[in-house]
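During the reporting period the student researcher (J.K.) took over the structure-prediction task from the postdoctoral fellow and processed the backlog of single-chain submissions. One of the processed entries is reproduced below for the supervisory committee.
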Amino acid sequence: MEKESPSPVPTGPEKPAPSHKLSLTARFRAYFLAGVLVTAPAGITIYLAWLFINFIDGTIATLIPGQYNPEQFMPFSIPGLGLLAVLALLTLVGAFAAGYVGRLVVRLGEGLVDKMPVVRHIYSALKQIFESVLAQQSTAFREVVLLEYPRLGIWSMGFITGPPHGEIQRATEDELITVVVPTSPIPTAGYLLFVPRKDLVVLDMTVDDGLKVVMSGGIVSPPDRRRRAASAGAAAIRSPEETAPP
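J.K. obtained the following structure tokens:
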């Protein structure tokens, strides 16, 4: 006969694994980093805005006659007064330039600038840039793309500024697209590339999200808009039986 194996001796209920509590130093460090994450972005933004406003105020204050400066009659300074004055001045200039007399004055001024050898090229380039960026129907900096640059297998993020014209487009049979590849973390510098449209991968992220990725060095990653749209679409087509509680 086979001998029965002895039953295991009960050892009592198992003790739960001890929970690791944070030490006082680790807790202080965690709270300190949380405070930095909360206050640093807001503080830096407010500081830069304050520097910009003070710069505008200091520049405009020297141009306003003393009898028309409200700060001469008040015991305290008004922050942002210069910025408001600049906004009001630009609005008035735009309203004047939109009228018949304003268009004649602008046309006369541009005619004088066209006769200057060096200034006319600078003015023409700047005018085209501002017209392309500020136009409501412009496609400049409206799409974010991926392209294999500086070599195949390495992908870079770029921004479409529009199609090239003239000799640049005629130099090749492919449809070219002008792409600016910014540098990180300062996106104002970068490289100007003319890339065939078929070699570009258009992303769904906005230009603001793309700039966040570049300026943060890839630390900030925007949510996947396609996945979110697909999840929302799948939830919308579910049957009532599937979404009903049991």
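The committee noted the following: Residues 24-61 form the longest helix (38 residues).
J.K. will present the remaining backlog at the next meeting.
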